[in-house]
Structure formats: C-alpha cells, structure tokens
Amino acid sequence: MKMKKTLLTTLALAFAFSLAACGNNNNNSNSGSSSSPSASPSASASASAPAETVSGSVIAVGSSAMQGLAQAVADDFMAQDAYKDVSVTVQAGGSGTGLSQVSDGQADIGNSDIFAEEKLEADKAAELVDHKIAVVAMAAVTHKDVGVDNLTKQQLVDIFTGKITNWKDVGGADQKIVIVNRPSSSGTRATFEKFALGTTTEDLQGSIQEDSSGTVKKLVNETPGAIGYLALSYLDDSIVALKYEGVEPTTENVATNAYPVWAYEHMYTKGEPTPAAKAYIDYVMSDEIQNGFVIEEGFVPVSAMKVERDAAGNVTNK
Amino acid sequence: MNLPAPNSREDLATKPNKFRKHVMEELRGKAFVYFCVLLLVITIFSIVYFIASRGLTPFLSQGVSIKDMLFGLKWKPEGNPPLFGALPFLFGSFATSILAAVIAAPLGFCAAVFMTEIMPKFGKSALQPAIELLAGIPSVVYGFVGLSVVVPFYRDTFPGQGIGIMAGATVLSIMILPTVTTIATDALRSLPNGLKEGSYALGATRWQTIYRMILPTALPSLLTGVVLGIARAFGEALAVQMVIGNAPHIPHSLFESATTLTSIITQSMGNTTSGSLHNNALWSLALILLLMTFLFVFIVRVLERRVKR
C-alpha cells in the first residue's frame, strides 16, 4: 500500500516536471531573445559593445504558399554572422492556422495570404501588426487544347458558377469545362474570387478542389478541358496562362494594378515583434532579399508596386 | 511470480543485498510500466476530450443542429447563412472504404489461402514480405501514384475525369491489402490441422476443403481483418484526398469528383482560424470520424467473441 503511494507520488512528480519543462520551452520561444538562459551570458558580455547581437528563436507558422520563400530566407538569415544565434523555424499549415497561432501567442510570426481582418474577429485582428513582405499574383490557367487565351471577368464568373460548361461558348474547342478549384477556405481562392471574379462561388457538382498548387498544375495539365488558377511562379509551357480582360499576367502589369488579381503576403506579429522576429522580418524586407529570393520564388517585391491596396480592397497610387 | 512474504523475510536475513536488489528491480519495473500506462491513458482521454469539446461546440452553442449536419446535403461553411450538411462526406467515406474492402477482401483471402494451403514455403518467403512491404509505403506516395497512374487510366477508360470514388477506392484497396492479408493468414494458420486432415480423409479435394471447411471456419477472423481494413481506409486522408476531387456533393457516378470526411478536414483545417464556426464544424466531423472508428472497434470485438466461441 505504502509502496503504491510513493509510486504514484513519483509518477505525479515526474509528470509535473515534464509539463513544467514543456512550459519553459514555450516561454523561451515566445519571448524570443533575452529569457533563454544560454544566451544571457553573451548578451550581458556584449551589452557594452556597440553592435548588439540578436539571439533567440522565431517560429513562423502559416501559409503554405509562403513556406518556400520564408524557409529560403530563414536559411540565408541564419547563415549570416550577425544572426547566428537566432533560430528561425518555418512551418506550413495554412493561413488560418498561422493567424490563430500568432493571435494565441503560440507562434512569433503568422504567415498569411490574406488580411487578418478577413479571417479573425475584429478585436483579435487589431492586436496584430501587419508586415507586407511580398505580392503574389495569380493567373487563370487552362489545359493546352481548349483554344482560349483570354477571358473577361464575366466569362470567368460564368465558368466558375457553372453557367458556361463548354469551352465553345467562350470561343474555344467543343470540350466540356472541368473546374480545378481550391477549397472554399483557401486564401488563394479568396484572392482569386475577390479580384478576378468579384464574387464568391460555390463548389459545383463535379468540380475538383485541390489545396496544393503542384496538384492543381498537374491536373490542369493532364485533364482535357480543365481550368484552374495558379500563382505566377507555377506558370510554364505545360499549361496556358490566360489573359484577364486582355491584360497579360506579368510583373509589370501587376505593379501598376493593370492586372488586378494579386494579393499581399503578410507576416503578422502580435504587437511589436520580438527582437529576433524583428531582425528576421527586417531581413526579409531588405533590398537584397526583396530583389533576390522574393523574385526568384516568383513573387513581386513590395517596393516594386506602384499602388497600395488596403484590407477593404481600395487601391491607391503610391 | 511474487514470493510469499515469510520466504522473503528469510531471504532478508540471509542475503540482504540480493533481496534489496530484487526489490529495487521490481520497483523500477513496476514504476516504468505504471508510468507508461498512465501516460497512455491520459493521452487517449485527453484526445477524446479535446475532440469532443471542440466538436460539440457547434451543436451546443453555435446553433447547428445535429440532424442538419448528419443529413444535410449542402456544405457551405462560409455562406450566408452557413450550411453544414455533412452527408456527402459520410457518403464518400463509406463508399470509398467499403468499395476498397470489396476489392481488397478477395485479393487478401486468396493471397492468404495461397500462402497457407497451396504454397506455404514460397508464400512465407516471398509473397508475405512483399505484401507487408505495402504497409510501409507512405500514404503520400500512394496518393501520388494514384494521381499519376490510376486517375489517368480511369480518365482514358471511363467517361469522366478519372478522379472520384473509384480512384480513391482503388488506392485504398492496395493500402489495406496488408491488413486484410496478414490477419487472414494468421487466422488460416491457426486452424487446427485435424480439421483439414479430417476433410481430406473424407475424400474431399483441396478446393472443397478450402471452400467448405477452411473459409467458413475462419470467417469471423477473416471479417475482423476486413473490418480493420475498412477502419484504416475510413481514416486515411492524404492519399484519398489527392485522387478523389473533393467536391462536397454526392456524385452521380464512381468517376465524378466526390469527397470524404478526412479529406475535407485536412483541406480546410489549416485555412480556418481556431474558434471560428467553420473550424469547430470540422472538429465535429473529426468527432464523427472518431465515433465511427469506435464503432469499427466494437464490431471487431463482437467478431472476436464469435471466434472464441
């Protein structure tokens, strides 16, 4: 009997200890630089020195569309001498996850394809600070054999709402239209519906919904009569990128808003970022990265944009 | 097992060191086992509690009725008013997993019969490892193979886009084949030899013995394998999601875009914010999934009881 009691106590203690350990870890990653015990000696040592070293860990969670860029920049960032004490972890999981985790304080940075106001409740969104790091543009794409290279807004709406079901009705081949859409909760779909269609659409009977751009591209490439939409970085010869109202989806046209189907990529922080997170975001915003990785990954640098757009969709010239 | 108390007291007098060592061993072993079990129980209960607490919120405080969710045909979580009809998902999940079992069961049974009755040596050394290898292939690989091979094949052979319940069921049937086969093989191997010998002695041929004696006797165990296979197919998300098309409608044919409970959850969970009605509704779907799995486990238990009888 007594033995059992001691056993239980030991177990409880062990459990409590492991929980406490977890808690500690969380604290470290949340508060970033200063509280990490291994970093504090070096911080106090270099306090007198003019060049302050940043240390700590940054967790960035969210949009899978931004994952590639955020990870590439994070690797480069951590390779810099000045930031070698900072560790940046980038996780995909979707814009919604990114926004809720940064809002709950589980992540330092929430990556999102859409404005926080569109997903979170107003009071929660107000706590977040927006850092627009790049612009992503999307083009409607079709299978090679549909014989169409331009669609008007109305034609796109008719296709995605199921009013037009054959390509011959928009001047193409006699081929049934197959819609390769995104899930209704996707940020990419929200952008496309808002700026290309101007209306939300339902998932139609027989339409395909895929979350991953790679799968969408593969299906559009292989399925006769398929139409979908992809970020500019995914465009190549295997599919046909459509003009929108006669405007080609190019970086120049996006910069002037002549081609309106684009959105910001956001990095949200709760309040002002921790020093480590700030260093990372500043690094992402630096000219070197904006004109390097951002363009390489198929995004448009924010600095190249000649217009600005707010959460409500109002466009102003810069 | 445990030494009776007087004996150990004697030991204490004669070999105190050895006794202490044994006590410590006993204690450590016990503590380790208790700790693991405790952790396991806590984990299981917290998972169930977590899913239930999230999944019941739409019904309890957000005004969604259980009936609408189970029998509604329209899934429009972002609509106005939002609609949460999950029947297309339930239909898709059941259709794909049962169809997968229908494809996999004969294959698995035949493989098991082959490995136990017809060519035990070759079966054990070559066929069984090959089939068990299938269990080790990651589901994303299955999904990709499905998307690259199965879907184009169906697209070219049947009317439609190739994507749909049939493609999902095909991929799933290969995924559950190891489960069905392994359990069937074990069941057939564990049959008493006398049964077979008696049948042969009565002049039955090998086929008659297999068909009339072995399969009926082992049937409950074989069904256990099939139900476990269905449970696995029911819970599989990624591979199915890649080939089924994910349209939230009940399809008109096996080759038209459909969806399952798991694929709608994986597709939308990351894109919704926690606490929103849409997100909670997805947790409700997860709860339905969990309850279905409990049901499958229950069926397996019932079947096992029949085996013992």
> Would you list the SSEs of chain B in sequence order as H and E?
HHHEEHHHHHHHHH
The CATH homologous superfamily of chain B is named MetI-like
Termini gap of chain B: 30 Å
User: What kind of oligomer do you see?
Assistant: heterodimer
The overall strand count of chain A is 13
Biggest pleated-sheet summary of chain B: 2 strands, antiparallel
Low-pLDDT ranges of chain B: none
Q: Number of helical segments of chain B?
A: 12
CATH topology of chain B, anyone? MetI-like fold
CATH architecture of chain B: Orthogonal Bundle
In the CATH hierarchy, what is the class of chain B? Mainly Alpha
| Mean pLDDT reading of chain A | 82
Order of helices and strands of chain A: HHEHEHEHHEEHEHEHEEEHEHHHEE
Radius of gyration of chain A: 24 Å
Radius of gyration of chain B: 25 Å
Can you count the beta strands of chain B? 2
Most extensive interface, chain pair and sizes: A-B, 41 and 44 residues
Number of domains of chain B: 1
Structural class of chain A: alpha/beta
The biggest sheet of chain A, with number of strands, parallel, antiparallel or mixed sense and barrel status, is: 9 strands, mixed
How many distinct helices of chain A?
A: 13
List keywords for this structure.
heterodimer; A: 318 residues; alpha/beta; nine-stranded mixed beta sheet; 13 helices; 13 strands; elongated; B: 309 residues; mainly alpha; 12 helices; 1% strand
